[in-house]
Amino acid sequence: MKRLLLASAASLVAASVAGAEEIKLGISVGFTGPLESMAPQMAEAAEMAMAEVTESGKLLDGSTLVPVRADSTCIDAAAATAAVERIVTTDRVKGIVGGMCSGETTATLQNVAMPNGVVMISPSATSPALSTLEDNGLFFRTSPSDARQGVVMTEIIMDRGIDNVAVTYTNNDYGKGLADSFAAAFTEAGGTVTINTPHEDGKADYSAEVGALASAGGDALVIAGYVDQGGAGILRGALDTGAFDTFVFPDGMVGSALETNFGTEIEGSFGQNPASAGAGRDAFLAMATEAGFDGTSSFAAESYDAAALIMLAMAAAGSSDPATYKEKVMEVANGPGEPILPGELGKALDLIAAGTDIDYVGATSVELIGAGESAGSYREIEFAGGKLTEVGYR
Amino acid sequence: MDILNAIVALANFVLIPAAAYGAQLALGALGVTLIYGILRFSNFAHGDTMAFGTAMVILVTWALQGAGIGIAPLPTALLALPFGIGLTAALVLGTDRAVYRFYRRQKAAPVILVIVSMGVMFVMNGLTRFIIGVEDIAFDDGARFIVNARAFRDATGLDEGLALRSTQVITLVTALVVVVWLFWFLNRTRTGKSMRAFSDNEDLALLSGINPERVVMYAWLIASALATIAGTLYGLDKSFKAFNYFQLLLPIFAAAIVGGLGNPVGAIAGGFLIAFSEVGVTYAWKKVAGYVLPFWEPDGLLQLLSTEYKFAVSFVILIAVLLFRPTGLFKGKSV
Hints:
- The complex is a heterodimer.
- Chain A is built from 14 helices and 16 strands.
- Chain A is an alpha/beta fold.
- In chain A, strand 11 (338-340), helix 14 (345-353) and strand 12 form a beta-alpha-beta unit.
- The N and C termini of chain A lie far apart (64 Å).
- The model of chain A is unreliable at 12-18 (pLDDT under 50).
- By secondary structure, chain B is mostly helical.
- Chain B has one domain (2-324): ABC transporter involved in vitamin B12 uptake, BtuC (Orthogonal Bundle).
- Chain B has 13 helices and 2 strands.
- The N and C termini of chain B lie far apart (49 Å).
- The A-B interface holds A 32, 36-37, 171, 195, 197-200, 202-205, 207-212, 214-217, 228, 232-233, 236-237, 240-243, 257, 261 and B 9, 12-14, 17-18, 21, 134-136, 138, 145, 148-150, 152-153, 161, 163, 165, 234, 238-239, 243-244, 247-248, 251, 275, 278-279, 282-288, 301, 303, 306-308, 310.
């Protein structure tokens, strides 16, 4: 019996070192909660990358990728920890695309991913605090830090000749991080922030918040909130009372819900979300359309890139062991090497097998800096004729 | 001119929104207080009854809109309201038959009924989401504004705009009509009087031949009508989202308790008190002060409390009232 156990254990080890295996990857995003309208597209984008690699049959001798979804809820750190604990300990995932929101990501990273040594690549956690967090080299993100978004937003607002704004943010790590970094950048650029005040999500009435914002005044209102939550409530209240005419929407507010619920009422308002132009984005959008989902949805492209990075790093390291492949993430993401666009993951695996360096460009022009976060390219949007239209990229 | 500006700013950001919100809370609190008066327990399922009722109204509204029936410039939802009330009443009476009656026959303690109502709350919670989903639904149609902020500014030449939404006026008018009817019903009709008698002294009421099942049925009928009306008015004014109705439960209970549980006048006063203190205490007076006292240029926002404490305001009032007048401002039953 003992010998049998030993033998099977040995063969298991052998199997995981070489030969085809079934690699499970977790997708931890908030399928319920304040960003539930973005989560499905993010998950589908990540699963699209996994299907692409599985079909190519070129990762670690034809291993197959199996996605495992977990609901991180975005706001409930305890629920997110439990969900990720489940996919790490029960499903034994080798890497995680996620978490979605900054607070929940910090909690799952510290409570689950680090103790179990699993790599997490977040497509959408943007809090500046995550840049300096101790992570044992396990945490990366394909989205830029909000410290960068604060600077970009300042430039966009200043370029439109506005130097006097009110700011309201959703009362959590994401909202506060973004609002503070923006306020610092805006003040430094010579602008005035008349008020910087939080709002709670999911409340019955926002008259009080709108009243305070209106009293403080400003030429535009920056809403660093969520489009499915309090952000929409504040916007509705501010529009109805005529408190503000122009609004600035950071990434959490840029969504199709704005178009359907507000349309022409927010004519001339503008904002930005992380995204980049170029061949990579076009290729990704075409693939998304073919797969039957909306690739322009916020953070969908980042999710594809996060999943792709995990799998390419595995190929480069020749192992699906997080402790080994975590060293290779930065290497495949950055140059020098052959540029890789979405849809070319099979080619990338061939190149890696042949010993050629690759530079993963992906759907969002991935370039990881610092502790492993995206350098940051933003899409500037504007509402014209009741439609969300693209102005350019920064 | 400056004084006018100050008044308009105050009306636009404090008086009008708080009055509409207060009316919504008052209607909700009336339902809670009625159930407490007759059945002697705090009905935690009331918020979700509101959500269910509103969901029904929305479904009927869609059907009416599809059939091209409307009462423009008023929202179609008002036409759908009686159907919504009917469907909600059917669900609530069914719940009473299936759940509450069992505990009533056992003469269960009020605390058990409270827990039972929480169970009902979770079931209704799921039912509503199952039927209509979790998304934000805007179902108001017809004219949105009676007075538009920008138009008001242009017409009067004032710096401040005044917005008056049609839903705010509808809310206040409907609330007034409903309250007048309810008081007439409770004070003038035979059924209303028997309900009050049952509420004041159950044993005496039974001795004088009042049928308790009938009283209970009327209480549920009125409560579900109030819940549907309150929920629909709230949804018209803001938008429908199942989760928000659950959140609404807290200020509604605060209103009912501050006013005095079981006392209809108290429920109305409590609703407005909570709404005005939430909006008023956290209001930043800088703009108004700037108009009234132009020579004084304050550095800060002149805000008593930051807006994130607005819920604390209602609960401080609640605690103060319970400490000094345990039966509420208007002498309800003790909690």
